[in-house]
Amino acid sequence: EIVMKQSPATLSVSPGERATLSCRASQSVSNNLAWYQQKRGQAPRLLIYGASTRATGIPARFSGSGSGTEFTLTISSLQSEDFAVYYCQQYNHWPMTFGQGTKVEIK
Amino acid sequence: EVQLVESGGGLIQPGGSLRLSCAASGFTVNSNHMSWVRQAPGEGLVWVSVIFTSGGTFYADSVKGRFTISRDNSKNTLYLQMNSLRAEDTAVYYCAKTPGPFDYWGQGTLVTVSS
User: Fold this and answer.
1) Among B41, B20, B30, which residue's Cα sits nearest to residue B106?
2) Which residues of B touch A99 (CB under 8 A)?
3) Contact B101 A34 (CB under 8 A)
4) Which of A15, A48, A70, B33 is the most buried (most CB within 10 A)?
5) β-strands A10-13, B104-105 pairing
6) Cβ–Cβ gap B44/A97 under 8 Å
7) What is the mean pLDDT of chain B?
8) Shortest Cα distance from A87 to chain B (angstroms)?
9) Alpha carbons B70 and B52: distance in angstroms, whole number
10) What pLDDT is stored for residue B99 in this prediction?
């Protein structure tokens, strides 16, 4: 099973600032990496797939990069609605596995 | 518009059984891989099971032999039969369309296993 590790566990950011979230895979997942946003009490929402492709309706301030084992999600200018928990997930190998999440909170 | 609506959750005693349903609209369940993903209270996301377009199935080790995923094409509905439930199965269960990543999710249904 591929282990996904996210860092940091919590990120404190002021509105308007840039946020950078990291995700590392225990072995290569090529570019089969997705990012999700989850707000309290809601289902996760797909943000990025293929490591860097934004899903339908996702604002351009969200961007993804990386391949192999190292990936990054960047939110260029945090809006109030972006404070949430973010998960990475690999879908290159079964079982699909998620990182433990990064909570982005208001500084 | 794609929609997934789960139902069937509730409070169940350890060792009991429960069947979750996920009614789909806006697409055809048997033309897509479909998964169940769960989230224990305050915890992260864990993939549970998938049913492929071929009808083949795959399970996480933690539920293998206890859970069964299936679908009813006539009702365009996905199911998860959960037997021999344990306290550690307590979670919100989501169904998700699975082309690779999970692109559409239901709102989830809460399963609580407790005496």
Assistant:
1) B20
2) 44
3) yes
4) A48
5) unpaired
6) no
7) 97
8) 8
9) 10
10) 81
**Residues of chain A with confidence (pLDDT) below 50:** none
Q: Of chain A residues 34-53, which have a CB less than 8 A from chain B?
A: 34, 36, 38, 42-46, 49
Angle of CA points B99, B100, B105, to nearest 5°: 65
| CA dihedral sign, ordered A33, B33, B109, B41 | negative
Does B35 reach chain A within 8 Å, measured CB to CB? yes
pLDDT in tens, B23-76: 999 999 999 999 999 999 999 999 999 999 999 999 999 999 999 999 999 999
Going across the sheet that includes B3-7, the strands are: B3-7, B18-25, B77-82, B67-72
Q: State pLDDT tens for residues B67-111.
A: 999 999 999 999 999 999 999 999 999 999 988 899 999 999 999
Query: Residues near A90 by Cβ (< 8 Å), separated by ≥ 6?
Result: A2, A4, A25, A29, A32, A33, A34, A96, A97
In the numeric block, the tokens 């609506």 are attached to B5
Using CB atoms within 10 A of its CB, is residue B41 exposed (0-12), middle (13-18) or buried (19+)?
Answer: exposed
Terminal Cα-to-Cα distance of chain A (whole angstroms): 35
By the CB < 8 Å criterion, does B56 face chain A?
A: no
Asked if A57 has any chain B CB less than 8 Å from its own CB, the reply is no
- With CB atoms and an 8 Å threshold, state whether A36 touches B45: yes
Is A97 in Cβ contact with B103 (below 8 Å)? no
**Structure-block tokens of residue A1:** 């099973």
